[in-house]
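Project channel, design review

CF: Before we commit to the Lupinus albus constructs, I'd like one complete example in the thread so the newer folks can see what an input/output pair looks like. Taking Serine/threonine protein phosphatase 2A regulatory subunit.
RD: sounds good, go ahead.
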Amino acid sequence: MFNKIIKRAQKTSAKLGFNENSGNGYQFFEVVVKHASRAATTNNSEPQILSPRVEPPPPDPNVIELLPPLRDVAVSERPNLFLKKIQLCCFLCDFSDTFKCVYEKEIKRQTLYELFDIIQSGSFKFSKHQEELVRMISLNIFRCLPPASHESSATETVDPEDDDRYLDPSWPHLQIVYEILLRHIISPDTDIKTSKRYIDHIFVLKLLDLFESEDQREREYLKTILHRIYGKFMVHRPFIRKAINNIFYRFIFETQRHNGIAELLEILGSIINGFALPMKEEHKLFLIRALVPLHKPKSISSYHQQLSYCVIQFVEKDNRLADPVIRGLLKYWPVTNCQKEVLFLGELEEVLEVTQAAEFQRRMVSLFRQIGRCLNSPHFQVAERALYLWNNEHIISLVAQNRSVILPVIFEALEKNMKSHWNKSVHGLTANVRKMLQEMDAELFEECENQYLEKEARDRESEERRELTWKRLEAVAAQAVRDDMVLVN
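CF: and here is what came back for Serine/threonine protein phosphatase 2A regulatory subunit:
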């Protein structure tokens, strides 16, 4: 309860600093990497920071200095003034107290906006001050993140739709700093050869560390910025892929807790989409060693959409990768988590849709044994999702080509559903699938039915013999007790 009160207070204080209807005249970049792995839920109403209603009184010059706008000074003085403005923005404010350093925060905010406007408009050549600019950005965004919610409460994951999710109180300043960094990276005035000395491997690693932030707005900016760095700084590409790999390994095999897995996978979705053919061996190893094991953590629901997109991209580019993907899905198939089973069945359908006959035949027996277990699941959503696989024309064609192997594997599960499944919807869908298979090959269906009836008869005989054996043993034991009984007067 105390944690919720604190979060609401932080949310309220963050809301006081911005308004999405602000008329300050600045347009912020839409921070979304657009590709098919992302649902159409972009944050089009990104809050904007309010201009002050009243002019603040002059601040203490010993703390922060009020500087004139760049356009109001002579051209010869602008480089020095630009540098002073960067140094002013290195002043770090305490956002834990809303009423502390109010005037200093406002002056810094206005200065950040001016820097953003200068870089966006291209009215000033800032290439000589890249080192100071990146240093200012680093001082503001690279910080110790607050303790995660799962460390202070019983919950392990935070619902992104929850009203009590964490909102960073320093976001009114952080947002502008992230915009400055983004504009700096995409600006045509940014010289790659010079800039890569400051936006180096250490900078990229620190940026990746910030994906642990619980504030979803910050992760959206980080996603876009890292994607732009990957696109512009070709020298960093192998390092970025390796660093993301290491984050995944730690998440899978050590912590199983990370707030930014979905965003990192979304970046990778765009990267994988651009892989050249034939694919390099390191990319295939990344699929097998990182993406497939990402199906193991129980928090998969928070990033499954992005993960599924990445996996499908690999299989579409190289059909031979369907075999290790299906094998991995069967390896990490959930035993007791029904929600996770539904996700796996949905992904399996997408994989099978781009799978060719040769790869399908390698795994069809073990695959349909697992599908049969799902058909008999007492959880009706799992059974329904498994039956919906027969609505896919490509899967039906694969089944039809290999019906002599698949039908005997799946027949018993269908018969059990017809006899004993409690859900009417599952019962009806099973009847439809059963009829489809019967029309596909009536002779094979009849043969499977006869084999099933013979197996049922053998099972009944075996059960009767077992019951008869137990009755004989009980009779012998009862007789032995009576013979050994001692009468006491």
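RD: helpful, thanks. The first helix runs from residue 2 to 15.
CF: DSSP finds 21 helices and no strands in the chain.
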